[in-house]
Design brief:
This protein is an all-beta fold. The protein is built from one helix and 24 strands. The longest helix has 8 residues.
Length: 374
């Protein structure tokens, strides 16, 4: 039987899904996460070093360095959880999370999530996963130390999650790849209510080994970037989140069609007198999204809201399976325009489960516990 999970309360605005994996980590990570055999471990970039030019992008290459949270969350009772989900095909998918000892755990399915095989690859707790092609996968692992808790490394698998190599130390919170080399990542750079201090949006052309921060501040006065979903090397979306309180926050969804050179605010809501753009509710804390080339997609929020769009992110409406402060979406994946998946923490069942829809979010079904119960 699974252990009891401590209450979520109100999430700290900077963490999104990665705070939730910190909540279930039961043992601190070392400053440099454990490396699986034969993995290449790049040295930690000096955050204070001067940027170096990036010939392939023309943008300064820097290591993301966010403000660190002042204190770690309370430690819950032991529980094995999945914190992220991604699918290569309707049959083959991967979930990442942590076991009851706080170690990283990978769950793999070949039957659409009805059954799972669990692997313990020797990683720290996993807070985020993404996939592309037929077998490429990336994972973001989490450190939970006295002086820092949050994302700390990116790992890659070339064999559909069976083995992993650390790509680099990094504090990127979410990443999205369009092929084996080209990807995008975000780091929440919003330290105050005044808006983002830098863009917080990064891109890679070498599978995640190096990242270059784009210029400008896409999230502007909304806040900082928390989620990212690219469908081509040119077109993608980011979610933005401002300071939150009492269940509400400034937030928005932005789109680029020119590889991040310019951005359009598709939808946004502000806490002041500024007029809203598009249609998105002010309640809850926007932390991630998964979009399709057609402009349909899904997003998830920190206290339980699950929402969908059919017009590129301008209009958002609520949908199952999230439930405010009860069923908490930890990660989602829009595989096709119709086939979508969530991994949900169910506060009533005290477990994480895979939910799926095959009609673009109109109807959802609980498929299985993930990882499978013991």
């Amino acid at each position: 039987m699974r252990g009891t999970y401590g209450g979520f309360g109100s999430p700290v605005r900077r963490s999104g899904t990665l705070e939730l994996i910190a909540l279930v980590a039961l043992a601190a990570c070392s400053p440099t996460p454990t490396v699986v055999p034969n993995s290449a471990t790049p040295s930690l970039v000096n955050p204070s070093a001067s940027p170096t030019s990036s010939a392939d992008t023309g943008i300064a290459s820097v290591e993301p360095t966010p403000t660190k949270p002042t204190q770690p969350p309370d430690q819950p009772t032991s529980v094995a959880v999945a914190n992220a989900i991604a699918f290569w095909t309707p049959s083959r998918g991967i979930a990442g999370g942590a076991d009851t000892h706080g170690a990283g755990e990978v769950s793999l399915t070949s039957d659409g999530g009805r059954t799972w095989s669990v692997k313990k690859p020797g990683l720290p707790p996993i807070g985020f996963v993404t996939v592309v092609g037929s077998s490429d996968a990336w994972a973001i692992t989490t450190c939970t130390r006295d002086d820092y808790w949050g994302a700390c490394a990116i790992w890659r698998s070339l064999d559909a999650g069976s083995s992993w190599t650390k790509v680099r130390n990094s504090e990127l919170q979410a990443i999205s790849f369009v092929d084996a080399l080209h990807g995008w990542g975000v780091l929440d750079t919003e330290p105050t209510a005044g808006g983002a201090s830098t863009s917080g949006v990064f891109r890679t052309a070498d599978g995640g080994r190096t990242w270059s921060e784009i210029s400008g501040k896409p999230c502007g006065q909304i806040g900082g970037p928390t989620g990212v979903s690219f469908v081509t090397a040119e077109r993608g979306w980011v979610t933005c989140l401002g300071d939150a309180g009492t269940g509400m926050a400034a937030k928005g969804v932005l789109e680029t069609r020119d590889a991040g050179r310019t951005w359009t605010i598709e939808s946004a809501v502000y806490m002041g007198d500024q007029a809203a753009i598009g249609s998105i509710a002010a309640s809850d804390y926007l932390i991630g999204l998964s979009m399709r080339p057609s402009g349909v997609g899904m997003a998830w929020e920190g206290r339980g809201s699950t929402i969908r769009t059919a017009d590129g992110g301008r209009t958002w409406v609520g949908m199952p399976p999230g439930s405010f402060d009860v069923a908490i979406p930890l990660g989602g994946w829009a595989l096709t325009d119709l086939d979508w998946y969530y991994v949900i923490w169910d506060g009533d069942l005290q477990d994480t489960a895979l939910w799926a829809t095959h009609d673009g979010g109109l109807h959802w079904s609980s498929i299985s516990a993930v990882p499978p119960g013991v």
